[in-house]
Design goal:
Elements lengths: L1 E4 L2 H12 L4 E6 L2 H9 L4 E4 L1 H6 L4 H14 L5 E4 L5 H10 L3 E2 L3 H8 L2 H17 L2
Length: 134
Amino acid sequence: MVKLPTTEEGLKACKRLSTEGIRVNMTLIFSANQALLAARAGAAYVSPFLGRVDDISWDGGELLREIVELLQVQDLPARVIAASIRHPRHVTEAALLGADIATMPHAVFKQLLKHPLTDIGLKRFMEDWEKVKP
């Protein structure tokens, strides 16, 4: 797998590599048009950066929805990697909108496991165990 930026030269390289059977992940995607160009160039994966789009007060989720829909409507085989995930809600949103993969910091991954009711349930379980263990 080769990772290339979504630039004119990156698209040229993607086209060349994909025709040679080398899978390419086109990264730094910030618009549906960039994803379309990458998929048409033969990218196996397109990586829209949700968090960075949100950072400039645009809607990263809307961008992801557009890209997923565009690839489906155009019947393009590229898979979508939701990148620049900032928090657990981004993960849920990306999954609901049809992203195939999400890349995230380890801290966000750990947050996916956390829930206050899980902590309370575990605490109660351990208290009950202490009462009955030999």
